[in-house]
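Dear support,

I submitted the protein below through the web form. The confirmation email said the job was done, but the results page showed an empty box. After a refresh the structure appeared. I'm attaching both so you can tell me whether what I see now is the final result or a partial one.
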Amino acid sequence: MKFSWKNLLLWSLPIIVISFFLWQGLFAPIANENKTNLTNSRMTYGRFLEYIEMGWVKKVDIYDNGHTAVIEAIGPEIGNRMQKIRVELPASAPELITKLKKNYIDLDAHPTKNNTALWSLLGNLFFPLLLVTSLTLLFRRSNNATGGPGQAMSFGKSKALFQIEAKTGIIFDDVAGIDEAKEEFEEIVTFLKKPEYFTAVGAKIPKGVLLVGPPGTGKTLLAKAIAGEANVPFFSISGSEFVEMFVGVGASRVRDLFKKAKENAPCIIFIDEIDAVGRQRGTGVGGGNDEREQTLNQLLTEMDGFEGNTGIIVVAATNRADILDSALLRPGRFDRQVNVDIPDFKGRLDILNVHAKNKKIDTNVSLSIIARRTPGFSGADLANLLNEAAILTARERKNQITLKEIDKAIDRIIAGMEGTALIDSKSKRLIAYHEIGHAIVGTLLKDHENVQKVTLIPRGQARGLTWFTPSEDQSLISRSQIKARIMGALGGRAAEEIVFGESEITTGASNDLQQVTSMARQMVTRFGMSTIGPMSLENEDSNPFLGRGMGNNNEYSDEIAIKIDSQIKLIVDECHKKTRDIIKNNRVIIDKLVDLLIEKETIDGNEFANIIKQYTKVPQKI
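What the results page shows now:
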């Protein structure tokens, strides 16, 4: 261990404290009584007086201010040998001195040394000196240290990660899949490098840029790339670091952060998860948080208050732009809002190419195939996918990542860890019929997604799984597509009903029924896809704790509520009837597919479609 005075103090203080109490409790009393512990023999005071009358006592030494006596006596009871015996004297015994003088016994008194005052002085001085020393070291560390508990007196200072040289190690080439957002920032980087191009026509630098998008889409990574491209000072701080339990600390940190930024302008301030401090003011059932609102007010003032911040660009990231305060979003504070969405096929392919640079992937693996199989994956999901595949490859002692490991990684990310395969039993056959029911209904419906895989291998909480390949564009969904999804979700329950009977249906369709009810309700209350008419009857953003729709209950009558319930039931019943008809009309195919699935445990989507084509016509998918 490296020597330092701090380590020496930390080790020596407990030793000093323990030694002090040991001396007080053990050694000091022994030091005071070292002359009284001359013998272990003891005698009562009454027997001592009898010894005096018998003439057996030769000498008496008195200690402890007359409370203890050590006598030298000889007699038949003690073997006629001279021995020292200890006697505890009563508090008042005036006749004792008289008897000792009458019997001509040698008497000697030994006064006690008074160390009480010394020990009391040392005890009173020790702990104040210890406290002063500790505080001195604490203040010294708070002035010299850059983090940790030594900053006890600097909790109001900014904790921004200040980087003068902007050594983030990330540039725009390292950020893929968000080309539109990169174009916005490339313009800002040009403004910072060559502002004369814009000031010549009267343009001003944007004061703030808000990055909005789902988690894992690369908002923080994009902000780091700005520092690498613009080569300007870069301040990075999380929104949660502004808010503390101490009143006024958040506002103080905002002032300190912008003060440092002004000293190093032009520069960039990046605030991650700004919704932690920029949430709508005055929200919640019991009102807002005063400390958080003071912090937000100070941030609003610094961004566009009485004093301008020339050359300072604030970049913030959030995935909850809907809960941000309206004053924070107005022009002059956050002039631009850049959406960082889930990447499309081209974006996913670019992201996979970036993350595949440092991984040994088999030449037979096509990244474009992986990109097509992962719609809805964010950049973080794709990075995790290749990392999981690399872990599986290392676990199996392989030298290169193959498509098999990538398939397992996709399944693990979506559905969870692989469980133990089921043994042949009635339960396994029932699960096989359930999953084949999902798959055949989805295959025979024109508006449903294609089957990718059917498996009886458990993953997560599911005992079996049917995978569908989702379409690329999920932003607009037609009424026929929603009904097809409802029927696909009901396929498992319908297969159980037709094959095993109503009395043998299981709880395996519980999650399917939740999805069915949710989709049918949204058709009626949000999308206007029922006989009630094109009306939006429910708003999904009605959480009063976010300052949206506070106290906003359903604005329709009981009569409309009854109609909503009847329309939901009508949609579900219609889809359920059509699903049962599909299962009944294709019972022969279903039985053959179930036997094959039990034997192989997994059927690929192409193989599944080819088997069905032998017995019936598969509709052309949209």
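Response: this is the final, complete result; the empty box was a page-load delay. Residues 172-339 form a domain with the Rossmann fold fold (CATH 3.40.50.300).
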